[in-house]
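Handout, section 4.2: multi-component inputs.
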Amino acid sequence: MKPRFLRFWMAQLALAPAWLIVIFAYIGTIIWTIQISFTNSKVFPVSNYVGFTQYSRLFASERWIISVQNLAIFGVLFIAGCLVLGFLLAVFLDQKIRAESVFRTIFLYPYALSFIVTGLVWQWTLNPTLGVQQTMRNWGWESFTFDWLSRGDRAIYVIALAGMWQASGLVMAILLAGLRGVDGELWKAAKVDGIPTWRVYVHIVIPILAPMFATATVLLATAVVKVYDLVVALTNGGPGISTEVPAKFVIEYLFQRQNLGLATAASTVMLITVLCVLAPWLYVQYFRTPRSAS
Amino acid sequence: MKHISRKLLGAAAVLSLLAGPVAAAEKAEVLHWWTSGGESAAVAVFADQFNAAGGEWVDAAIAGGEAARAAGINRIVGGNPPTAMQFNTGKQFEDLVAQGLLSNLDTVAAADGWDKFLSPVLIKAVSRDGHFYAVPVNIHSNNWLWYNTALLEANGITPPTTWDELFAAMDKLKAAGVIPMAQSGDAWTQVLLFNDVLLGVGGRDLFLKVFQDGDVDAIKSADFLKVAQTFGKLREYGDAGQQGRQWNQATGLVVTGKAGFNFMGDWAKGEVLAAGLTPGKEVGCTPGLGHQVYWIGGDVFVFPKTDNADAQKAQALLAHTMLTPETQVAFNAKKGSVPVRGDVDTSKLDACAQAGLKLLATPDASVPGSDFLQTPDVLGSLQDVIGQFWTTPSQTPEELQTKIADIFAAAK
Amino acid sequence: MSSTAITEPSGPRPKHLTVGRIGLYAFLVIAALFFLIPLYVMIVTSLKPMDEIRLGNLFALPMAPSLDAWFKAWSSACTGLNCNGIHVGMLNSIKILVPSVILSISVGAVTGYALSFWRPKGANILFGVLLLGAFIPYQVFLYPLVRMLSMVSLYNSIPGVVFVHAIFGLPLMTLLFRNFYAGIPIDLFKAARVDGGGFWAIFLQLMLPLSTPIIVVAAILQITGIWNDFLFGLIFAGRENFPMTVQLNNVVNSSFGEKEYNVNMAATILTAIVPLVVYFVSGRWFVRGIAAGAVKG
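Output:
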C-alpha cells in the first residue's frame, strides 16, 4: 500500500486551487491585517509599530461599542425572526394549499434583491413624512405614528425587519424542503394516536428538521457578520450613530477616515470574536462525528 | 511576473506604433464625484476647455465622494492611477503626498504664476513643504443661513441678524405651524450646523483655537459651552422627517415655503436657481449669522505620479487649463462657488456671492475650513459625537463639551 | 430521498373549509402583502411623473402612468458627463457573471468532491479555514487583494473581478457540494474505486451526473450574489467594466438637484430583473435542490 499522500496525489492536485486561495487570499490577508493593526498606518500601510495603541483606542470608542451592541441586537432578531417566520411560512405552505407556487415565489423573491435595494425601498416606505405614516394620516387617521426610522432607540429594529423581509424566504425554502422529506406515515400515526398537530410539529418535526435549521442559521449568520449595505442604504448609521455596525466601522476608517491601523484593529477583533464563537460550534457540527460508512 | 507584464506592455507599444501615427491628443482620465445635473454642467466646462486646448477628456465619474476616493486610492495602490483625481480642499490627500505618490506641480505653478492670484490660505492648502501638489478649482463657503422671504413677511418677521432674533423668529414660525428650521438627517449637515454655530456664536478666534490649535482649554471654556447650548437649543426647531432627508430636500423645504430657515453652504443656490427663483430675493441669504465670518472650503484635483511621458504632458495641460480665467469664471458660475483667482471679473455673480466675496476680501473675516486644519480621522470622531448629540435630546451641552474636549485631547 | 416526497406536500391532510383553513389562508395572504408592498411601491412610483411624486402619496396608483422614467433609466440617465443610462452596465454584468459563476461552481464542486470522498491529508484544515472564511467581512480583504492582483497584472480587468468572485464564492460553494456528496452512499464510491475508477473518472462519470439539483442551487445563489455585488465591481473591475449595480448607485446617489424617485425606482427594478427572472423561473428547482443539498446540515 502506497502512503496516503501518494495514493491521493490527484485529489491533492485537485485541491490545489482551493489551497492557493486559502493560503494567499485568506491566511495571507489575515496575517497582513493583524500585522497592520499594530502600526499607526494612515492611508497607506507603514511599519511603524505602536503596540496595542489602536486596540485601546478602539475599545475606548463609543462608536465601536455601539456598533458591537447593534450587531448583537440585529443578529439575534434577524436570525430568530427569519427562522420563526420562515418556519411558519413553510408549515403553512405545506398544508396542501391552493396556488402554493405563487405564494412560494412571493415569499422567495426578496432574496433575489440586493441589500442595497432592500434598504432603499424600506427607507422610502417607512419614512415618516413620505411613507406609511403619512399615508395613514392622509386617509384620516391623524394620530397614526410610526417613526421608528427617525428614533435612535428604535431604528435598529427597522433594520432587522428589513433584513427579515429579505431573507425569510430562503429559510422557508430550506425548511419546506425539509418538511417534504418528513415521512407521510408520521402524520397517519399521529392521527391514529390522537396527538394534536401542533404537538407533532413541536416534538417530532422540529427535531427532524434540526439539520435544516443549522444550514439556515449558518447562511444567516454569515450575512449578520457582514451586514453593511443594508445599513448604508437604510439609515447610513443614523440617527446619529445609533445604527452603526462593525463592518461599516471598518470600511469607514479604511477609506473615508484614513486610519488603516484602527480599521485593521477593528477587523482583527471581529475575526477573533468570530473564531471564538464559531470554532467550537463548527467543530461539533462538521468534524466530531466521522463520516458514517452506511 | 513584473518582467512578463513589462514585456507585454512593450509589445503593445510596438504594435501601436506599427498601427500608424495616432492623433497626438493628450488623454486624461479624470476621476471625480460630480454626478448631478448642476455639477455635470460645471464639469463639462473643464472637459470642453481641456479638449479645446488639445487634450482628450475621459470622464470617470463615481457617485459619492467616499466611493470615488476609495476607488481612486485603490487604483493608485494597484499601480493603475487615473490622470487626475478630485479631493476636498484640505488634508485628505496629505498621506498621498507623504508617500510620494503625487506629481509635483511646481513647474506649472511657476509658469502660470499661482502665487500671484491665489490667496495665502489656498496656497497653504495645496502645497506641502513649499511644493505644489494640487490644483484648487473653487471656493465654497459652508456657513450660510437661507430663509424664505415671503414666509417670514407673512409672519411679521424681519430677517434676523442675531441668534436671539433667530430664535424669536423660529418660535413665531413654530406657533404658526410651519417647520421653523429645515434640517437634513445626514451627519455631515449636522456638523455643518455645529460649525455655523461655533463661528456665529463663538467667533473666529474660538474656531481657530479649536480647529487650528486643538486647544483643549478653549473647548472647556464658558464661550464654548455657550456654543454647545445654542446648538442644543436648535434641536427643538427641526421636524420629525429629518432621517433619510438629504441636504437638497431640506433646502427645498425653504424654497417651497414649507420651512422658514435652513443652514447650508453656498451650493444651496443651485436649488434656488433650479426652482426658477433668485438667490437674495425670494430666498434670502446671510453669510454667517452673528459673527460674520467666511468659511473657506472647496475642491482640488491632484495628479498621481506616472512614468508615462504622455500622461505627464496631459497632467500639466489639465492643471493649466483648470486655472485659466475663462475656465474659472464659467466653471464657478455653474457650480455656485467663487473662483479661486482673485483677478477675474466677478461682477456678474449674484447678490449672495457678492456678499461672500466682500467678506472674503475683508482682512481677518475668513477662516480655513475644518478640512484644512484637521485629519479626516479627527473630523470623523467629531462627526460621531455631534450626530449623536443632535439626535439624542436627552444629552446635555456639557456632555457634548466634554466629548469634544476628549477627542482633541486624544489627538494631541 | 424519493422525488415524490419532494414535490408532494406532506403536512396533515386538509380538513376542507374549516375555521383553521380560513385562518391559514388569511395568514398567507397577510404575509404575501408584507412581502409584496415594497415591490408595489417600486413599480407604482416608477410609473408616476415627478409632479405626482411631489404630492407625497407613496401608495396611490399613478393618475397618468407613463414609461418615461423607465426609458430614461435605461438609456439616458446621467453619471457625470456620460448620459447613457444603465444599459451599458448590463453587458458588463453579464460578462462578469457568466465566467464567475462557471469558475466558482467548478472549483467548489471539485473541492467539495475531493473533501467529501478522498479526504487527503490536510483536508480538514482546508475545510475549516474555508468555513471560517465565509464569516469574515469582505472589507478586510480589499486592500491586500488590490496589491496582489496588481502584482499579477489582473487589477482593473474582468478576469480580475472574476477571480475575486471565485475567491469569495469558494466557501459557500464548497460547503454546498460537500454536504450534497455527504448524502451520497459511500458504498457507491467504494464500488467505483474497486472498478478502477480514478479521481476524475469517478467525478465526471458518476458524481457530476448526480449533482444536477445542487448545481442548480449553487447557480441560483451565485447568479444572484454576483449580480447584486457592488463592492468588488467598483474596486476591481475598472471603469470600462463597471457592472450594472455600480451604475445604479451612480444614478441613485446623485448628490445635487431633485431626487428623481421614478427614475431611481425604474433603474432599481431594471437592475434586479435578471436575478428576479432566475427566481421566478427556477423557484421550484431551488426548493428541490436545497432539499437535496441541505440534508446533512
